[in-house]
Amino acid sequence: MNKEIVIIKPEEKYIEASAEISAKAWIPIREVNKKLLGDEIYSFLHNGWQEAKKEAVRQSLKVGKGFIALCEGNVVGFTTYEIFEDKKIGEILNNAVSPDAKGMGIAGLLNKSVLKHFKEKGCIIAKVSTGLDEGHAPARRAYEKLGFEKNLPQVEYYMDIADSCKKEDFEGFTITSMKEEDKKRVLEIAVESWEAIHKAYKSCLGEKLYNSLYPDWKSTFKKTFTDSFDKSDFYVAKKDGKIYGFCSARYERNGRLGIFGYNGVDINSRGMRIASKMYSFLKNEFSKKGCIYARVHTGLDNGHAPARRAYERTGFSHPLPMVTYYMKI
Known about the structure:
The protein is α+β, with helices and mostly antiparallel strands. The chain has helices spanning 12-25, 27-37, 39-46, 49-62, 106-120, 137-146, 183-205, 207-213, 217-227, 274-288, 305-314; strands spanning 5-8, 66-71, 74-84, 89-97, 125-131, 150-160, 174-177, 233-239, 242-252, 257-265, 293-299, 317-328. It folds into two domains: 5-148, Gcn5-related N-acetyltransferase (GNAT) (Aminopeptidase, 3-Layer(aba) Sandwich), CATH 3.40.630.30; 159-323, Gcn5-related N-acetyltransferase (GNAT) (Aminopeptidase, 3-Layer(aba) Sandwich), CATH 3.40.630.30. The protein is 42% helix and 30% strand. It has a twelve-stranded mixed β-sheet with strand order 1-2-3-4-5-12-6-11-10-9-8-7, with helices on both faces. Strand 10, helix 10 and strand 11 form a beta-alpha-beta unit. The longest helix has 23 residues, at 183-205. It is globular.
């Protein structure tokens, strides 16, 4: 006899049980992460991950942003979400089913409940991000079964950079901190570089969904990009006074993790390995500042292929592939 599954909005008495399920459900995912990253990088990134995961779930459910699945009064699953009213996008966040309750269709019931809620709140697009590794295979199947088809594949690379500082020959290029007078050209290069990326996005998503997500991408991008000037360290690659490219960096984990940020190369100067020169420069900067590891996030689409090649030449490996699904609702 099938047991009845009831989907409810969060109640205080069920929140801690939901948080505990999240820690159990993520164990196989973290095991795959460990294989991909190696023991040292994994320990650096995910030490204490269970409590961090549980706290993220608690925070969402405490403010009512989620649903909980009950079976005979016991919590057997949950989902959390965020709604971006200005963009009319609903995003599914942490969600899991108790390992003891697999095969009962609970994930589907939770996902349908959250999609219905998104629609009631005026959302026109649903979004969810998940891994492309084997640990996330059940989640991907559940999302695709629900109707999520269009997607943007991405990857995070990591690199051990301890004691990697060395003198580099930049072949006549100088790489220095961006000055006020450099900002206009840096923005121009950035917009030119992102043209190819958005062309790839449109190919992946289809024109209708792409236009809904990025109705005026250049204006939005320009604002986000220029806002980052005060949040990251920007550098420019010059030769004979001309700017050929730019790169940026920021720091996390008390300065021990260096993160590659926005970067781009003049479209008429491709093939000169300028990106590789800038990435080697950043790698040395990270080492000088005491970073242990470096991270970069990029796309797995064709538009990001040149960037991936340059990152891999610089020494980035240990990839964590992921994907963001979208669906019109």
